[in-house]
Amino acid sequence: MASIYFPFSSVDIDYSLKDGRVREFKLEGIILFSEYDNIAHPNWEEILIRWVKFSNLHVDEDGNGLYSFVIKLIEDGKITHKHN
Q1: What's the pLDDT score for residue 51?
Q2: CB atoms < 10 A from the CB of 52, how many?
Q3: How far apart are alpha carbons 36 and 7 in whole angstroms?
Q4: What pTM was computed for the model?
């Protein structure tokens, strides 16, 4: 289990470290997806993908690797990994 909060964009993501599954995604304080509360905005995953690209989370800029939820998006073919 892992949670990450990005204060510069008010994004909160709760995800599994083991398999990268997103369990909750909040943007600007609005829950777009939550397994816990059975909430799923119709476009939550597309919004997450756009945010990942905008934030360059698909680029391993420091050599420390990517977040597991980003790796899952790459493995599922929903986003392309960019090398620095």
Answers
A1: 93
A2: 22
A3: 22
A4: 0.87
